[in-house]
Design goal:
alpha+beta; SH3 type barrels; 4 domains; five-stranded antiparallel beta sheet; globular
Length: 432
Amino acid sequence: MKKSTAALMTMVLGASLMLPAAASAASAASAASAASQTVGEIQASVSFRTQPSTSSDVTRYLKQGEQVVILEEVNAYWYKVQDAKGAVGYISSNEKYVEIVAQSSEPGSTAGTIVASVSLRTGPSTDATRIRYLAKGEKVTITGQPSSYWYAVTAADGTKGYVSSDEQYIKVTGSLPGNNPSNGNPSNGGGSAPAETPSAANATIVASVSLRTGPSTDTTRIRYLAKGEKVTITGVPNGSWYAVTAADGTKGYVSSDEQYIKVTGSLPGNNPSNGNPSNGGGSGSHDALVERVIAAGMKYLGTPYEFGSDRDTTKTFDCSDFVRQAFREGANLVLPSDSRKQGDYVRGLGHVVKDWHQLKRGDIMFFMEYKGTKASAYAGVNKSSETITHCGIYLGDGRILHTYSVESGGVRTSVISGTHWEYRFLFGGSVV
């Protein structure tokens, strides 16, 4: 079912998307994203659901070869899509079920991707009212730059506001409105900040693969690298991922699986004794163990919550049962059966971290009781004497994998920063 890129782009930009309801699909895609339209092709039969959760109703099954318009990347696990008949629903974004086969952008549009949670405000000032937080991975359209510190943006839901232009919060794709290479704007190579030129390519993409913001399938997809693209491998963070720079200068991470990438030169800093995971060195075993634990937990996304769940089944979980199951499957480690004893276990290892920003991927997080959604509700609390009431697995990038209520949909991931999870955090640490 593979098609040439030229043919696919013709279909996207032309009057027909090879879909009977092309007009309505294109209209829906434009409403969802004024800047781009993305077409996906189903690779294996997948559930077409009413909500982005495995516990939601299945409308029907999409068959291999069907094409859909991807309206929104809801999170790291789900797409909101429209099928050939114009029906809108949700499907897994796993690459074994759907492959991006065409993308187009409107001339002159400027896209931005949120790199870390940032305030969307009513004006270009920290004194302006916060409309809401933009989450990591959200796509925005940059419509102006009132000063060197702020961008005027429109979020995917149509909300307009202002965000900090600091690169730690937003990544710009394309030229900013009104930018000129000679105007001294660093993002365009003018003046004092010349564009970075990647070193000679040392790898070739063998099959279309996601370029991501971190070495994990849970991180945000920047874009797809196409078959034949040349990239420069700049690092090997673990045995499963390469840090790369694409020919256009975009930096990210790709799977190191040979079905996706072929190394044509020397890898950076490889030495059998340097602890590089790809060479059998020390740190790789720990990283691989952490990834196995997280992979074990991820496969239970959407599994229903039940307080006091049966520790001998995986039909339902409460928080500590879920953490225990992930480590039992991924690391062959049997933790205590409740969150307080798991907290004691971590304390006993001497790996306690009290600032969640210092946690590492795979660490267990422990929380006090819920007192409300505002930081003020937790002001003055002596956390050293608080009782543990919840736990979860830190994923990195400010997210936690856990389960905490029936209403939340069971096993899921949540953002930590600026939420009650941040205010309730007691400590965390590694057990592997």
